[in-house]
Amino acid sequence: MTADRPLALGISGSPSPDSSSRRVASAVLQRLDGRGFETRTVDLAELPADVLLARPDGGEGDAAVRAALEAVERASVLVVSTPIYRATYTALLKTIFDLMPQDALSGKVAVLIATGYGAGHLLAIDHGLRPLIASLGGLSAATGIYATADHFDDGNPNPALDGRIVQAAVEAAALSGAAGLSVAEAG
Ligand SMILES: Cc1cc2nc3c(=O)[nH]c(=O)nc-3n(C[C@H](O)[C@H](O)[C@H](O)COP(=O)(O)O)c2cc1C
After folding, report:
1. pLDDT per position as a tens digit, 140-182
2. Tens digit of pLDDT for each residue in 85-124?
3. What angle do CA 19, 20, 23 make, to 5 degrees?
4. What are phi and psi of 147, to 5 degrees?
5. What's the 35 CA to ligand 1 centre distance in angstroms?
6. What Cα–Cα distance (Å) separates residue 10 from each residue in 55, 118, 121?
7. Is residue 149 part of a domain?
8. Is residue 132 part of a domain?
9. Which residue lies with its CA nearest to atom 30 of ligand 1?
10. pLDDT at 51 over 90
11. Which ligand 1 atom is nearest residue 88's CA?
12. How many other C-beta atoms are found inside a 10 Å radius of the C-beta of residue 63?
């Protein structure tokens, strides 16, 4: 019974099987699920690298990447997560955006998430991810989410990080027109 629910799609740009940025994205998606969204995630590390680099394989790889792009097309909200590599988002994350047509994100809202080893590259959210989304016509929630290891207790977001997760989810839901702008309602 998901046909009428707007889609919130996670896009994970981490190659790590136990990714901290993906964990934060999952927490945002959980909040959006609570606000009436269907949720799914595209793990870019599971897609064929050649096809992501615009070298079609004429087979299953093409179909897998096409399905990911169709999910993006259908989504109302994108929850974009990446580790910081060399002061910005990963090359892996960038691949999917390079395959999108101009204005592919028009009318869509993005939640921006990055994790790094220190606070030094916090601005990669605003200097890297935000213009990336804007270049395709997308609108990003004001609250970006940046986290380091200090923001996790036993692998789970600590209260400070959780506060930003809730706020970003509330903003994304409101911007996409699917719910009211109330932190209290976010649960
Ligand atoms: C190749 C590479 C480059 C990195 N560069 C940075 C960096 O410039 N700044 C930073 O804060 N962390 C850097 N890191 C650390 C990762 O951003 C950090 O471990 C992140 O939390 C991993 O997220 P993930 O678990 O989602 O993959 C780098 C890690 C790798 C493997």
Report:
1. 999 999 999 999 999 999 999 999 999 999 999 999 985 443 3
2. 999 999 999 999 999 999 999 999 999 999 999 999 999 9
3. 90
4. -140, 150
5. 31
6. 24, 24, 22
7. yes
8. yes
9. 85
10. yes
11. 8
12. 11
Q: Which residues line ligand 1 (CB under 6 A)?
A: 14, 16, 19-22, 83-87, 115-118, 120-121
Closest residue by CA, ligand 1 atom 2: 85
Q: What percent of the chain has pLDDT over 70?
A: 93
Mean pLDDT, the chain, rounded, equals 94
Q: Specify the ligand 1 atom closest to the Cα of 12.
A: 26
In a domain, 151, yes or no: yes
Work out how many domains the chain is built from and give that number.
1
Strand duo 109-115 + 38-43: pairing: unpaired
Strand pairing of 152-153 and 145-147?
unpaired
**Which residue range is the domain that position 98 belongs to?**
7-186
Residue ID of nearest Cα to ligand 1 atom 1: 85
Q: Tell me what pLDDT residue 3 has.
A: 59
Q: What is the 89 CA–ligand 1 centroid distance (Å)?
A: 9
CATH code, domain with 135: 3.40.50.360
Q: Establish if 1 belongs to a structural domain.
A: no
78 alpha carbon to ligand 1 midpoint, in Å? 22
